[in-house]
Amino acid sequence: MSNFAFLSYHTCPAAELGRETAGGMNVYINQVARELGSNGHSVDVFTRSHSSDVPKIEEIGPCSRVIHIDSGLHDAPKSELYDYVDQFTEGVKRFQNTTKTEYDLIYSHYWLSGISGIGLAEDWDVPHITMFHTTARMKMSARIGEREPEHRGIVEGDIMEAVDAIVVATAHERREVSHLYGISQSKVQVITPGVDVGLFRPADRSKARKALGFGEENIILSVGRIEPLKGIDIILGAMALLDRIRDTRLVVVGGDLQHDPALKQLQATAQELGLADIVAFVGAVPQVELPLYYNAADIFVMPSYFESFGLVALEAMACGLPVIATRVGGPREFVKAGETGYLIDWHCPEPFAQRLDMVLANPSLHARMAEAATQQASQMTWANTASDILGLYSSLVSNGRHGSG
Ligand code: UDP
After folding, report:
1. In this structure, are residues 328 and 304 in contact, taking their beta carbons and an 8 Å threshold?
2. What pLDDT digit, counting tens, does each position of 204-222 carry?
3. Using CA atoms, how far apart are residues 195 and 197, in angstroms rounded to an integer?
4. Residue 200 belongs to some domain of the structure
5. How many separate domains does the chain show?
6. Is the model's pTM score more than 0.90?
């Protein structure tokens, strides 16, 4: 049985989801850590201390816990966290020294944790695998106007050189990473994330609607953090073009209704398009309440310019929703066009409107897609993800990397 050190420096896996810095990566770390923990391994997830209110050590599941490490300001903006990485690394070293825990593997998440992982892997002499979740060059090539500090791309390249393996969520991301950073594909391992089918599963639609106060209209649903890369403006444009606009509503879950300028901008766009009564922005929703939204809806939309994976599309499928998504991230692999939804090749409203009208007008097509979507999602579990991580670790050890195994 092994001891894993996960690094999640910039964002806490126990944080509230759906706002600026907490989303799919937090869910991934939490789920994989708990899966490994319930299989007899032990996982310490190191994150920076982000509030004086949270306990230093927080159990998240059997044999899995979050360790908050003091490193710079609690409320330092994400753009400044690069300056505090070394303090974080030193804090993790001190924790290890004090507790005398022998870690077998470091699994770092996001480039800032990757930096820390390099120092720790040297110090502890253990293998280091990393998952970027998103990289600067992929983001910038996905959408005009995306900006990232120049050093980020360079540091990401250095991390790729230094680690033992890079974990990505899709075969497409593997090709992209290799192409944009000049890394051999043999160093990049595709390990598919999963969905918690205990939480996300089909349930009574009218009960879900009643609980949320929704009427009998068709409901198109979008869920996720609010940022330009998510392309919510595209779906607003599509709503304005729908044939069935009179009996259809768009519900947008995610973001901070009080403080998020990007969300305020989208609300203004909806107003300008005459959609104020048709679009509801509900803000971030705790994950345990999301199944109600998925089950109340008819179709899930993901108009993103970029997704590393896009867990929400899989959660929607697990609840029996057809997915209409741009050809990005996970959906380009797990949405089967014409069977579980549709993939759109353009970042513009018209094809979304066309597909939405088509599925809304065809109850039998909708029913077939709903069934196939649930079936497909049921095969993608976090247990598989954790077992693939273990497989990768074993292969590194048998190829000569250390670790007690
Ligand atoms: N999520 C949530 N509440 C919200 C919005 C999102 O709990 O209001 C969760 C959602 O269930 C999903 C994750 O946040 O598991 C978002 O992951 P995804 O991979 O779709 O997007 P990312 O954040 O990685 O861009």
Report:
1. yes
2. 999 999 999 999 999 999 9
3. 6
4. no
5. 2
6. yes
